[in-house]
Design brief:
Helix content is 39%, strand content 27%. It is of the alpha/beta class. Helix 1 (20-34) crosses helix 2 (40-53). This is PTS IIA-like nitrogen-regulatory protein PtsN.
């Protein structure tokens, strides 16, 4: 699945959320603003439920929070670059500044494991990470991540 089919430019942002909770709220608010049938609370609770099972911080300053929603029929992606890294309980104990969030229909979780895997692979590319971390503009951030 092409990233640009699930990630809208309006769901890509540079921000300074300050904490794990705040960045999950930011993600939830971005989704609710773009998809009025979804409430930010519903999205937040879905992401938080997954985080309670174990942190989605995969190391190297990257987190891939994800959640299941019964109220959607297609995946929704959100990309956030934090201007200041935040504590995220990542596996390497390092703070996180790059987040790719994915919301999937509750009955289609298996189909989207590949999307998570391909994003993790893309974010392991040192050149892409370097470009993302140098970017301070949401439009440019979207262009880099979808290239």
């Amino acid at each position: 699945m092409e990233l640009c089919t699930i990630l809208q430019p309006e769901c890509t942002t540079c921000a300074t959320p300050g904490s794990k909770k705040k960045v999950l709220e930011l993600i939830s608010n971005l989704v609710a603003a773009q998809y009025p049938t979804l409430s930010s609370q519903e999205v937040f609770e879905s992401l938080l439920a997954r985080e309670k099972m174990g942190s989605t911080g995969i190391g190297n300053g990257i987190a891939i929070p994800h959640g299941r929603l019964t109220t959607i029929d297609h995946p929704i992606a959100i990309f956030v670059k934090c201007e200041e890294a935040i504590a995220f309980d990542a596996i390497d104990k390092q703070p996180v500044d790059i987040l790719f969030a994915l919301l999937v229909p509750a009955d289609q979780c298996q189909q989207h494991l590949g999307t998570l895997s391909s994003m993790a692979k893309k974010l392991s590319d040192k050149q892409i990470l370097k470009q993302l971390r140098k970017t301070h503009d949401s439009t440019e951030l979207y262009q880099v991540i979808t290239a």
